[in-house]
Amino acid sequence: MKNLKLIAVLIVTIIFSNCSENKNSSNDEQEIRNLISLYDEAAMKNDIGFYETNLAPDYQIATSEGSFENKKSSLQFMKQELENPSYKLISLKSDSVQVHFIGNAAVVSGKWLSTTQALKDSNPVMHNDEGRYTSILEKRDGKWMMVSEHVSDKPHNKTEIEASLKAASESYDKGLMTKDKALFSDLFADDYASTGREGKLTNKEDEINQMMSSDVVFLTSNTDDKNFRIYRNTAVETGKFSSTGTYKGKPFSETGRYTTTWIYRDGKWKIVADHTSPMPDSK
């Protein structure tokens, strides 16, 4: 009889313990889900203080670009974006969030969805992006802290991304005739490099100065036989160009081939490299 009573007490204790653990687990899960929502809100508000408080001192993140950042470098990047933003964040939210516990740690996985808008764009277009993330949080001194993250992007919609690339290419053609310095300053990446007909290499500043020079006057400028190949956030454009005009008062007529390398950065296409080769009959 005593053994039966002891067994009954043990069963009640186990049941009570399991119920208590389930209750704590449920509370922790809700706390973590709320925290994930607060992370999204902090990103929308540029609330760097939130990240300073909730990222663990040993925090690390593997970004979609393949870089590996710690807390210090992550906060520094956020401050730079706050002072000199490269894009406008319209919306950000997490979806399909899953939480799994391993002792005092939690593994959170989910989908992120964002809408951004490029800055310094005469015709700003909304860009919808999405991807996956995995986060590891650890409960330290009774508080859940973000310890590690990994973020990946879903490839952009091919039709949309190709349309925006073609539009950027057409803006280059128009800007050449109108000598639109502001357009080229925005269209060329800061690390832009151009290889000319004689093998001369020029950077962004030099190239724009040459294009804006009063020595060069374009009467006509056309491109055709364009071909675009897109590799995630990088693209290669090849085509044929023909132009007429004057250089230091002397007429010229030129036909050639070109190769342009584009990169999709901060919600817009930018040119990182150009190579032109005149055809034999050019003068």
TrEMBL record:
Q: Which residues form the DUF4440 domain?
A: 32-146, 166-271
Cross-referenced InterPro entries: DUF4440 (IPR027843), NTF2-like_dom_sf (IPR032710)
What's the name of the protein? DUF4440 domain-containing protein
Species this protein is from: Aequorivita soesokkakensis
Q: What is the lineage of its organism?
A: Bacteria, Pseudomonadati, Bacteroidota, Flavobacteriia, Flavobacteriales
